[in-house]
Write a structure and sequence with these properties.
It is a single chain. The chain is mostly beta strands and 393 residues long. Helices cover 4% and strands 58% of the residues. The strands form 3 sheets. The chain has an 18-stranded antiparallel barrel. The chain has a 3-stranded mixed beta sheet with strand order 10-14-13, with no helix packed on it. It has a two-stranded antiparallel sheet with strand order 6-7. A hairpin with an 8-residue loop joins strand 6 and strand 7.
Length: 393
């Protein structure tokens, strides 16, 4: 990272280059408050989370070379375990049919709305609670080759681990999570991962075929001195994601095969996972200029209840209403149903623009009957509402 920032300083302080460089900068300031309606007895976890977040982006381009720095900084009460991150900080050099990117970057693989099993490049920042995750910028070398209607990406990926919440922040597991890590089954702190993805389109079909070998982003948790310690193994994953556009319908799917992953019982097991879905858009609903998208997806895991995540036999429904007004008003409602445990979780979001550069919104999370769900029982009392407002510049 220091070497990359040094390169940026060289470019910014060269008089000849500055006269030729195209630059832009933009950002956002967000203020938010989250309130939990149920108290958790016999612990020190707070029933609120207040935070101020600053996002600043600086982009430059000069002939074949471009670069970006994205700074994410926040202050919160209770204090977060992650207060400043350079999630995007890279140099990108383009040739006639190739790109070479070096630095931190955010990569997204997948097609589905609720869960993306093929998406394995970035670790996660859970510092604001286990129910809220954001991607951490992954240090990488990314070589991209452009083909006629597709592209081929090769990644070299130094080891990186997740960031977990401090003991007084909700939502949490029943035990606190340690800030230290364990590594086993081929993984270590200096492990270099590799990934390959071929993606493109053919008529109305979009596709991606991917391969990843490196430390898992989904560690097991070992109980050590009454604390959960993340234990990372080295996984190998092959993934396929597809999307077909048929008029007002989108058909989506992701399928993976992963080996050397710890399951919910702490045992290494190979498995196959998938998620399939349909999205249907209705235009001009209720005789207004409103658009309504209905989304149904189903996820499965060959390990069943031994899955390390909570999407082993789940049905998702989502509805997104876009008013297409000058305020960019949107509503989104989703329901996740575990078909095995008959447990559910409901989320609701409302967002709108109140002034030209100010947006505000409300997020609601309502767990329903999670007591018997081994993957989500820790969230059974995490009913909460988040109110936020942001200013863009």
């Amino acid at each position: 990272m220091k070497k990359l920032l040094f390169l940026f300083l060289i470019f910014f302080n060269s008089p000849n280059l500055l006269s030729e460089i195209y630059t832009e900068h933009y950002g956002e300031v967000e203020i938010s408050s989250t309130f939990f309606s149920k108290d958790i007895s016999n612990d020190n976890r707070k029933n609120y989370l207040n935070s101020v977040r600053l996002e600043y982006n600086y982009f430059f381009e000069n002939n074949n070379l471009s670069g970006k720095i994205k700074i994410d900084a926040k202050e919160s009460d209770p204090n977060s375990s992650s207060n400043i991150n350079f999630n995007e900080a890279y140099l990108d050099y383009s040739l006639s049919d190739m790109n070479v990117l070096i630095g931190n970057n955010i990569i997204f693989w997948g097609k589905n709305e609720f869960f993306n099993p093929v998406d394995v490049i970035n670790s996660k920042d859970f510092s604001s609670g286990l129910a809220i995750s954001k991607k951490i910028g992954q240090p990488m070398i990314n070589l991209k080759k452009y083909l006629s209607s597709s592209e081929l990406d090769f990644y070299i990926l130094p080891s990186q681990s997740n960031i977990y919440p401090r003991s007084d922040i909700r939502s949490q597991q029943s035990l606190n999570i340690s800030s230290s890590n364990l590594y086993s089954k081929g993984a270590d702190n200096n492990n270099i991962g590799i990934a390959l993805r071929w993606s493109g389109y053919l008529n109305e079909y979009d596709y991606g075929l991917s391969y990843y070998k490196g430390n898992t982003k989904d560690p097991a948790f070992n109980v050590v001195s009454n604390t959960l310690v993340p234990n990372y193994s080295e996984i190998t994953q092959i993934g396929l994601d597809l999307q077909a556009t048929k008029g007002d319908y989108l058909f989506k799917g992701e399928i993976i095969s992963r080996s050397n992953q710890y399951n919910a019982n702490g045992i290494i097991e190979e498995y196959q996972g998938s998620i399939l879905g349909i999205e249907h858009s209705l235009y001009g609903v209720f005789e207004k200029n409103w658009d309504l998208a209905n989304i149904i997806e189903y996820s499965s895991d060959s390990r069943g209840s031994k899955s390390h995540h909570g999407f082993q036999n789940d049905l998702f429904y989502g509805a997104r209403l876009v008013l297409n007004d000058i305020e960019d008003t949107q509503y989104f409602l989703s329901i996740q149903s575990d078909l095995e445990k008959n447990s559910r979780a409901l989320t609701f979001n409302y967002e709108s623009r109140f002034l030209s550069q100010i947006r505000g919104g409300i997020d609601i999370y309502l767990p329903l009957n999670l007591e018997e769900d081994i993957h989500q029982s820790s969230f059974k009392d995490e009913n909460n509402i988040k109110v936020y407002s942001s200013y863009s510049f």
